[in-house]
Amino acid sequence: MQNSLNKNALIFGGASGIGWATARLMMEQGGRVSIADVRRPNGSDEGSAQYIHCDVREAEQVAEAVRRAATDVPLDWLVYSAGIQHYGSVVSTSIEEYDMVQATNARGAFLACRAAIPEMRNGGAIVLVSSVQALACQEGVAAYAASKGTLEALTRAMAVDHAKDNIRVNAVLPGTVDTPMVRSSAERFGGTNGLEQTLQQWGENHPLGRVAHADEIANLIAFLLSEKASFITGASYRADGGLLAQLAVRL
Ligand code: BMA
């Protein structure tokens, strides 16, 4: 990653999956990294990252995480990678489930950016982790798809509003990635096939023939944060192994 050496980065949902892969990449490059996640207690540091326990549904906890990440040094980079997936149609999704998915995946991003942007005193860059399911979706992901669509619109709105503050905002849209979230879905839907075989089958739906490694998404995030992407804002980048390029009709 270019120039991360002197960058101060905060990653929501950074304890696992795409967020953790991104944190690791930044740490390798010597950046200052704070990880805000509900799954790790304060101070359970791994590598050089500062862990901040944070439930992204709680505005005060999100604001406190930003305060701690931006102590002494302005914030340069923000990644929002917190996310959960619930399954159901609009009819079978309970109101509580819908609210929880929105609060975690989308409202949390609003809270994080709301707190972080004023701390980006030298300008900065934000990447929100959305999904291909913001653009086209499987059956039974109504709440999840809606939350990821919200992130897309929020990305554009913030890019427009904060260009004058020298803050770029972009979204990444991964296809199926080997993360704990997707593994728990594979466990749930895999039945007798088992988890690994289910992941492999899901991978085969992607023209590249496999699911992604979290590092492959982290590389895209790192690029969008870096100076190499200095003229890119308000954009959405798919990293989906060709999934959305392909029509389901087969010859
Ligand atoms: C992701 C998740 C995965 C899914 C993938 C492609 O955002 O929803 O469970 O496999 O999109 O649809």
Automatic annotation (TrEMBL):
SUPFAM superfamilies assigned to the protein according to its UniProt record, in alphabetical order: NAD(P)-binding Rossmann-fold domains
Domain Ketoreductase: 7-170
EC number: 1.1.1.-
Enzyme class (EC, first level): oxidoreductase
Claim: Transport is one of the keywords in the record: no
Keywords: NAD, Oxidoreductase
Gene3D superfamilies tied to this protein: NAD(P)-binding Rossmann-like Domain
MF terms (GO), sorted A to Z: oxidoreductase activity
Family to which the UniProt record says this protein belongs: Belongs to the short-chain dehydrogenases/reductases (SDR) family.
Protein name as annotated: SDR family NAD(P)-dependent oxidoreductase
